[in-house]
Amino acid sequence: MTPEAFREHGHALVDWISDYIEQVGELPVTSTVPPGWVRGQLPAHPPTAPEPFTAVLDDLDRVVVPGLTQWQHPSFFAYFPANSTYPAILGELLSAGLGVNGMLWATSPACTELETLVVDWMAELLDLPDRFRSDGPGRGGGVIQGTASEATLCAILAARARAEMGTGAGGRGHGPLIAYATAQAHSAVEKGLRIAGLSRLHVVAHDDRYAMRPDALAAAIAEDRAAGRRPFFVCATAGTTSTTAFDPVDAIADVATAEGVWLHVDAAMSGVAALCPEHRWVNAGLERADSYCTNPPKWMGVTFDCDLFWVADRTPLLAALSILPEYLRTRVGDSGEVVDYRDWQIPLGRRFRALKLWFTLRLDGPDTTRAMIRDHVSWTQELAGWIEADERFDVVAPHPLNLVCCALRRGDDATEALIEAANATGEALFTRSVVTAPGGPPRTILRFCVGSRTTQRRHVEAGWRLLQSLAG
Q1: Among 18, 168, 285, 300, which residue carries the largest CB count within 10 Å?
Q2: How far apart, in Å, do the first and last CA atoms of the chain sit?
Q3: Which residues contact 325 (CB under 8 A, 6 or more apart)?
């Protein structure tokens, strides 16, 4: 492809993307194609010669779009938001065009220093404790990970390194390490432990709001110490994926500090709400956390992948992840003058992710996101009122932000059937989960998550009317 052709095709592709985003609400939210359909529409063997760009665009319309779940659809109420905005798309384009690898400061100083800057900007905008800033009072700082799952794994590895160094209040020990989280915590905790070669997770009891009970955590730690195990890591969640439950981070920090256990706070789902001063209660207790993460794609419009991960002290993280072969050594790196972000993550190579965050903050500004968050929270509270007023439904969990969990009173089978029937219409998309209240049986729930940038109040109302019409 020549530079001239790249310009021509690039303009055509930008037009295609813009048309797709502006018209996505007219498409079915979910794909109806059967397994194997997409592959069956395309040649079984690779091309033997260049094809016209128009043929590729035609196949986007003919094959790819019909096989998509439309995550940008205004009636996408499933899973979690995965927003994309024009500034972030432009940032992604520039990242691809520059094609740099930011593994070291020396491999592109701008990639490293811009990332440090925008992560500090986000710490300021979210009103995070100064201990997480790169220029704060300690040795903290932030980095852009791919996902919250990667951030959780990095926190686990840092916690293990600290336990092995014997620098926590619990000191060095010899028993097997054990971690703590509730059943409501993200599956990334269990997966991260497996990847780290640690198989022991003590599931801590939660209360009727699906939040961790600090007394149960203290009892679990005491039990494990008595059995010769070494508590080293606890994950508190500030807005769980299933129900938006908020663990009492302050009270959990009391236990973690006394026991020398690393406290990681996962706010992937809801942490961006702190852009709004009235929602900064989501940060409660963070001044005592060892690490923290949140995801701008979920409620800010910074395209996936982009997870903001902060540590109060980078020393254990670097101890866990820093391996320095001779071919990566540099004078400035050896001197400690710069940050080499390869030591803050699992892979060596890293994309210039900061550009899409930088573009979003500069071109849209934080007030755009704040207005969207406020609308979503307002519509969600209105939705909860509609559900509570319908005698066929129960609201089964607190709904402080943009997620309502509900169920039909007729039972799990009826709720399952409602979810399937609503999704089959293509008019909206919902997901299910299962929650278990203390002392009660598991219960299937319908999750109604209001978080898409394109969603308006009318879409929320239409989604609820759809559920009402199918509820029986």
Answers
A1: 300
A2: 57
A3: none
How many whole angstroms from its chain centre is CA 106? Answer: 29
For 235, list phi and psi in degrees, rounded to 5.
-105, 115
- Any idea which residue has 């670097």 for tokens? 318
Which tokens is 271 given? Answer: 């942490």
Cα–Cα distance measured from residue 200 to residue 163, given in angstroms and rounded to the nearest whole number: 15
In the chain, domain spans: 94-363
What are the tens digits of pLDDT across the range 78-134?
Answer: 999 889 999 999 999 999 999 999 888 888 999 999 999 999 999 999 999 999 999
Complete DSSP assignment for 160-215: HHHHHHT-STT----SPEEEEEETTS-THHHHHHHHTT---EEEEPB-TTS-B-HH
* DSSP assignment of 222-261: HHHHHTT-EEEEEEEEBS-TTT--B--HHHHHHHHHHHT-
Task: Give me the torsion for CA of 189, 193, 199, 200, rounded to 10°.
Answer: -50
- The two structure tokens encoding residue 460: 């929320």
312-355 pLDDT, tens digit each: 999 999 999 988 776 677 777 766 778 889 999 999 899 999 99
Which CATH number does 94-363 carry? 3.40.640.10
Cα–Cα distance list, 26 to 32, 73, 75, 189 (Å): 15, 8, 10, 38
301: left (phi over 0), alpha (psi -120 to 50) or beta: left
CA distance 292 to 243: 20
* Residues facing residue 433 across a β-bridge: 445
Alpha helices by DSSP H, 330-411: 331-335, 354-363, 366-388
Distance CA(58)–CA(47), nearest Å, equals 16
Mean pLDDT, residues 29-51: 94
Instruction: Determine the 3-state secondary structure of 190 from DSSP.
Output: helix
C-beta separation of 123 from 142 below 8 A: yes
Q: How many CB atoms lie within 10 A of CB 383?
A: 24
**Kind of pairing, strands 442-449 and 141-145?**
unpaired
Single-letter code of the amino acid located at 145: Q
Rg (the chain; Cα; Å): 24
| Beta strand pairing call for 262-266 and 177-182 | unpaired
